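Notes from the 1:1 (GR / supervisor)

We went over the backlog. Supervisor wanted to see one worked example end to end before approving the batch request, so GR pasted a single chain during the call. The sequence is below; no edits were made to it. Supervisor asked that the structure be written out right there so they could see what the output format looks like.
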Amino acid sequence: MNKKSNSIELVDQMFVGVDSLLTTYDNEWNPWTHPKEWLRRDEQLGYNTLAYVDRIANFSDDFSEKQMFVERQMAYDSIIEALPLTYHRVFEPN
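Structure output shown during the call:
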């Protein structure tokens, strides 16, 4: 699988069972409202946030949606704790 198709697959997965998403302070796009633009800018800035979350989280194909949610939130917490001046959460708009 090439990098571009892998990124698109990760964008599709980033919304599954979540109420917040991880982003960087210098990315002007909102991942909820402009996911493709957000991803393109994230990669241009060199963060590759979706792949970073995927590396930090301990996902399993056997996880329920709730377990995936918890694991993703723990990965977000770890990343924000390690890089608080770079990353923050964006909550789902009402």
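Supervisor's comment: The chain has one domain: 3-91.
Batch request approved.
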